[in-house]
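hey m, so remember when u said the tokens were messed up on ur end? i reran from scratch. heres the input so u can diff it against urs
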Amino acid sequence: MKLVILGGGGFRVPLVYGALLGDHAEGRVTEVVLHDLDAGRLGAVARVLAEQAEASGVPDAPAVTATTDLDEALRGADFVFSAIRVGGLEGRAADERVALAQGVLGQETVGAGGIAYGLRTVPVAVDIARRVRQLAPDAWVINFTNPAGLVTEAMSRHIGDRVIGICDSPVGLGRRVARMLDGNPDEAFIDYVGLNHLGWLRGLRIAGRDELPRLLGDAELLGSFEEGRLFGAEWLQSLGSVPNEYLHYYYFNREAVLAYQEAKQTRGAFLRDQQARFYSELSDPAESVSALAAWDATRAEREATYMSENREAAGVGERAAEDLESGGYEKVALALMRAIARDERTTLILNVRNRTTLAALDADAVIEVPCSVDANGAHPMSVDPLPGHATGLVCGVKAVEREVLSAAESGSRTTAVKAFALHPLVDSVAVARRLVEGYREVHPGLGYLR
């Protein structure tokens, strides 16, 4: 099989390749094509993958090629993994600066920053979807490009259910909770419902029994893992569920914004500088530095500092070692490809079209829920309705996403202002107008908004 990785010069690509190296079954991926607009980044990542293959000892590791030509990359693809970052990390840092200057959140997928990122990314993602439909109509697109739910919905309007969004956040949450309950994370069923970066863990079944009430009834146990420390036992018990970590931006918005404003450096700026050092270090092929070792050290620092401002706001200090494991988006991607390519039926939490899953949303709204996956794709499973407070938040944010899609399609500045103004974390139409103008000034790509 041929796997195309869009954003192939991205820092997290070696995680995907590492997962492929562990797959030895018939029908596995044998060809990987990296596509990126930056040839220098492609060369650096290719060096890391070559060292990975050598270190693995796998005699028939997937062959790797790289290209800056999108059409060349897509032809003959079986799967397309999209992990692009329109505007790069400099764009993310700019998103944060503009938002914080207005006193609102600039995080890359939540609030003003997420809207700005979506307005930049949706036109590019739509173009990719159209080219996939033309050049590789039988390919499945696995979308990891943020904002993942919004981008997946934009692409689904052109290639339907052949685009599936993935995120490691819900799986990571479920695995941490399963460990707290002495269950096997690989065998637990995670009852999780919402939108991407806006969902709630409402149950966790181990051997057919929901063990989440036991966790919620034990304040000491709730304080022993990442989300419990972040939100506090009392709030989790009030909700009767465990929210995705990104809901900290909603439930503790003032504290989060203040922590970001007081931080020495925003997250985007930190990652921009960190990865610039990494790519600079690998820019000279003659240098004797181990590309794999440099990548691994950079990744460890990245994981340890994840959501550090939120932990600062919550007063919980550094991440515990046991919380550093993510849900492993590369494992989710591999499991998804295997299920489709080999009809190895499995259950995964994915971003897919709603159909009739949540009655409060229309059929085409992309949601994040457990899905059964087989050769025909991902099928959302029936779930219990969300409580009123969660339904209201989901519907409100989905309405904002729809305005972003409309603005990206029409180029309407007025609609873009509406998207910002309607978001729960932007509390003023005047602020929304200033945000649109601020983002148009720093992002030439948003010149289409008129």
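this time it looks ok to me. The longest strand covers residues 198-206. if urs says something different then somethings off w ur setup not the seq
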